[in-house]
Write a structure and sequence with these properties.
This protein is an alpha+beta fold and 213 residues long. It has eight helices and six strands. The chain folds into two domains: 138 residues, Beta-Lactamase (2-Layer Sandwich); 55 residues, Winged helix-like DNA-binding domain superfamily/Winged helix DNA-binding domain (Arc Repressor Mutant, subunit A), CATH 1.10.10. Helices cover 42% and strands 18% of the residues. It is elongated. The two termini are 31 Å apart. InterPro entries: Sig_transdc_resp-reg_C-effctor, TF_LuxR_autoind-bd_dom, TF_LuxR_autoind-bd_dom_sf, Tscrpt_reg_LuxR_C, WH-like_DNA-bd_sf.
Length: 213
């Protein structure tokens, strides 16, 4: 089951993304949405029309809600979802898709009236989203890999510097090794942690307490 974490300031929802035969409310795990919005969303089956959910399934890159494409002329349902969300002060948002080895797994989406979505805050939000997802995943279904594939000291070092926002080239300069070697260590760590990218590997290493900040 795919798992999503959707938030709106003090609002959160953990849910599976339903297949064509499932209703949205059947796969909800935890929810804290504005009063009335969840009832409307489920009653109208908005998950099938929501352009945010659609883009989450199609990309691995974080995006602002305004970047989710839909046509008001030809997709009245998508426009309705976004308009009704605005009624609940969910006008602007930021979404981070989280994909696993077997495809789409989750997304982290936040909404508010005045979001700080700068080039400085977005990477931090990305890492926090990954960590939140990994924590949720561990609580719901402990990973069988949590105690296996222990990282080497060099793999831990490269992930620590990655968590600090350093590029492979920067990390290479710090550790006195080549950028290619750094990339190789990160790739090895990703494989051991069953992660599809560096950010997910950092989140899992933090969750399993293999590294610290």
């Amino acid at each position: 089951m795919a798992v999503a974490l959707l938030t709106h300031s003090r609002v959160a929802l953990h849910t599976g993304l339903p297949n064509p035969k499932e209703r949205f409310e059947q796969v909800v795990l935890l929810k804290k949405w504005p009063m009335g919005w969840f009832d409307i969303y489920t009653k109208e089956d908005y998950v099938r029309l929501d352009p945010i959910i659609r883009l989450c399934r199609a990309t691995t890159q974080p995006f602002e809600w305004s970047e989710a494409p839909y046509s008001r002329e030809t997709e009245s349902g998508a426009a309705e979802v976004m308009d009704r969300a605005t009624d609940f002060r969910m006008k602007e948002g930021f979404c981070l898709p989280i994909h696993g080895i077997n495809g789409y797994e989750a997304c982290f989406s936040m909404s508010g009236v005045d979001l700080d979505l700068s080039s400085r805050t977005k990477p931090a939000l990305h890492l926090m989203a990954m960590y939140a997802f990994e924590r949720t995943r561990q609580l719901l279904k402990p990973s069988p890999n949590a105690g296996s594939g222990i990282l080497t000291p060099r793999e831990r070092e490269t992930l620590i510097w990655a968590a600090a926002g350093k590029s492979a080239a920067d990390t290479g300069d710090i550790l006195g090794i080549t950028e290619r070697t750094v990339t190789a260590h990160i790739a090895s760590a990703c494989q051991k942690l069953d992660a599809v990218n560096k950010t997910q590997a950092v989140a899992r290493a933090l969750q399993y307490r293999l590294i610290g900040l």
